[in-house]
Amino acid sequence: MIEPVEVTITAADYWASHPAELMQLLIQAASPGGPRAIADPSGRPPDPENFAVVVAPAEWASYPREMQEALSRAAAAAPSEGRASGVIAPVGERLTLTVEEAATLLGISRSFAYEAVTRGEIPSIRIGRRILVPKAALQRMVGAREDAAPA
User: Which stretch of DSSP H or E encloses residue 144?
Assistant: First the structure.
């Protein structure tokens, strides 16, 4: 069974106002070896409350209006509300991140993140064939490293 392609979109609010550019990036992401994260080109740091994960980007690339609407709702929703419908899963409401999402938040490459998971440096859980990074454990890990760093 082929696992569907997942693409993490940072800055849902930005991409909601730039659907044509996003559609081109989703088409690239759907190709073999395509990017698995679409960053905010404005240079803002990633905000864990302003992420979206798109499953089957090639399908969504055919529906720019619907994608724009979903991202607009995701960006405008209050943290306690459901942020998206369909296949967009908001990172802010999940207890776990994919390894790719964790890599983006940590500012490291996808491959380095997988190596760190294998070495046990990034906390992870495995459910079936999926590797997930618990958000709380990642925050504790980063907090512990910041506390241990010399001033």
Answer: helix 135-148
